[in-house]
């Protein structure tokens, strides 16, 4: 397993956000994490990327225990996150934002290669190359956040709500790109409100409710699960 | 009000103001760099500067120089300048890092509220200044005449001295170098990233603690250079020299837009010049009062300072 989360709990002050969750992501998979607002999806992502310290439990990445490792060192191990709210650097140009994604890398020609790949995946970013990140539209910022997360050549790509705020056509497109990224060899863990898209594109998925994992299965299984349909897919 | 005092001396007041402003600007960079990354006013920065003013005196003392020494020839003068600058830079840089490691980092580890940082900042500032005060019996110390101020050229009735030229040039060169570093280098980009979004910076692999140490160090280096210039220009230093000029430097940083490097330069030069105009107009005892009137008036119209806030947003 590339990522193994074992019985992790996490609290914000006195508010318990995660009540001992366990999940795994295998190499080459696209795994989706779905759930309602406040279920703990983004908190799980922050625990994996190291932005939030966990109270108990362990997180293993590539066989190594990274539970106590600083966030910036997890990037070097191969974990990369496109965060909730996108986290664009508003005063840097699109190109500088992308280059920030490659901060831990030194090989200039490889970085240039990956810049070109990002521009190929998101031609819109090429058009906006010299524009400040803060002046982009929400959809463009989303593309920039995903493109930037790829710039570290991660083994595991964490995407927090990549479809948030996007027009329906762009949602299709961004999921197509996620599948493409995965086929190029990157493992993806995906947090989504858009359960329909996420489940239909993911190999496996977990359902999170108030800080606990209540269901897991293949994307197709969960798509057909009556309880999931009822709660997250908006169809009776 | 003495308009003729201002008009008759307009040229000399401007030149004096620019030299003073250049020192203030270098000093102000330390406030602005740390604020840009931590949103913290590092009040102890004034003592980082203070220690610099003594460090170069100490280094010159090793060569047997004191205030009564004769002015050196060109060769030794260059040597003394380099030695003095290196000593001040090392001591001020080390002092800035020490303040960060002793006064701030332990608080950050414990997630202390902003008020706690304010108190330790003031505490660290008082502590250093008092230690220097006790060690020097609160006497002022004279500076050896490393560079004798000599007129280089005269425009109308305005004489410009070699020292004034050196101070302004050195400030501009250091500003340019710092600007290139912050906007052009990989580490500088890391600094801007932390300033603009600390969480995202961590997700890019930026070591936040290292960036914080770096901005303290950079601010200390600039303060060290400002300290040497101050010694040469004023001719004496004292345990409260940092406090007095520190208020000007902090004002300049806010004036230009705190967190903004180019704002610190603009704010420093502007403050230096306008202070001297005010001194010509109302008498020199009003110099500091004038700078606060100026600050309030400018903040009324531009609440984030002349060039606006944020280290990272300041782009060419």
Distinctive features:
heterodimer; A: 236 residues; alpha/beta; Rossmann fold; six-stranded mixed sheet; 10 helices; B: 316 residues; mainly alpha; two-stranded antiparallel sheet; two-stranded antiparallel ribbon
Q: In words, what does this structure look like?
A:
The complex is a heterodimer of chains A (236) and B (316). Chain A is of the alpha/beta class and 236 residues long. Chain A contains ten helices and ten strands. Chain A has helices at 41-49, 71-77, 94-101, 108-121, 123-127, 138-150, 168-183, 195-201, 219-223, 226-233; strands spanning 3-12, 15-25, 30-35, 56-61, 64-65, 79-82, 156-160, 187-192, 204-209, 212-218. Helix content of chain A is 39%, strand content 27%. In chain A, α3 (94-101) packs parallel to α6 (138-150). Chain A is globular, with a radius of gyration of 17 Å. The mean pLDDT of chain A is 94. Chain B has 316 residues and is mainly α. Chain B has a domain at 29-240. Chain B is built from twelve helices and four strands; from the N terminus they run αααααβββααααβααα. In chain B, a hairpin with a 2-residue loop joins β2 and β3 (158-161). In chain B, α7 (186-196) crosses α9 (208-234), α10 (241-256) crosses α11 (261-282) and α11 (261-282) crosses α12. The N and C termini of chain B lie far apart (40 Å). At the A-B interface, α2 and α3 of A face α7 and α8 of B.
